[in-house]
Structures are given as structure tokens and as C-alpha cells.
Amino acid sequence: MASNSGRKRIGSSNDSSNAGVLARVTSTVSESSVYRKGKQTANDASFVTKKLLKSTGKAAWIVGTTFLVLALPLIIELERDGQLDALELQQASLLGTPPTTASSKSY
After folding, report:
1. Nearest Cα residue to 100 out of 87, 88, 81, 82
2. CA within 13 Å, CB half, 48
3. What is the pLDDT of residues 37-86, one digit of tens each?
4. For residue 89, what are the domain limits?
5. With 53 labelled, which of 2, 21, 34, 91 sits at a CA distance of 20 to 30 A?
6. 35: Cβ–Cβ under 8 A, 6 or more apart, which residues?
7. Is residue 44 assigned to a domain?
8. How far apart (Å, rounded) are the C-alpha atoms in residues 89 and 61?
9. Taking a C-beta distance cutoff of 8 angstroms, is the pair 98, 92 a contact?
10. Is the residue at 17 inside a domain?
């Protein structure tokens, strides 16, 4: 039988002062200044992105509701006016009268 007295297993916690390799690497990395600066930069980028999305959503809501209240009725009215002009032109051509131009109309 072979004896394991000369070997240590990775990750074994026989001695509390002798931490595993993974734990030592993790603690070394998390204590480095590059890691801390990277983490802070990621947190700052996340914060800015959330604020940007929130303000963009508010702006989209304002633009959308303004369009519905102001522009959409105008578009509908212009479309009705165009349809009415087309109907008058069609009726005039059926009756045989010469079509009137838009500039000669009086309001």
C-alpha cells in the first residue's frame, strides 16, 4: 500500500491557516486595484445606463402623447379634406362641369 503522507490534496482543509489555492487566488484578485477599478467602472456604467433608459422612456412618453393630442387630429383633418376634394372632382367630372382648381376656391 502506498502512503499519502508526503502529498497534500488541493482544497483540503486539514490546516485552517493553509487555505486552498482557489481561495487564495480569489482573495488576491478581489484585493487588486485593477479589479476594484473595473468593478467600480462597471457599477458606474450600469447606473448611467439605467438613468438613460429611464429618461429616454419618459421622453418617448411625452413625444408619443403630444403626437396623439396635437398631430394626429391634424393629419386626420387633412386626409378628410383631401377625400372631400377628390369627391368634388369626381362629381364635377360626372356632371360634365369643368373641374375647379384648388387656387380658385373661395373659403
Report:
1. 88
2. 6
3. 998 999 999 999 999 999 999 999 999 999 999 999 999 999 999 999 99
4. 28-98
5. 34
6. 29
7. yes
8. 41
9. yes
10. no
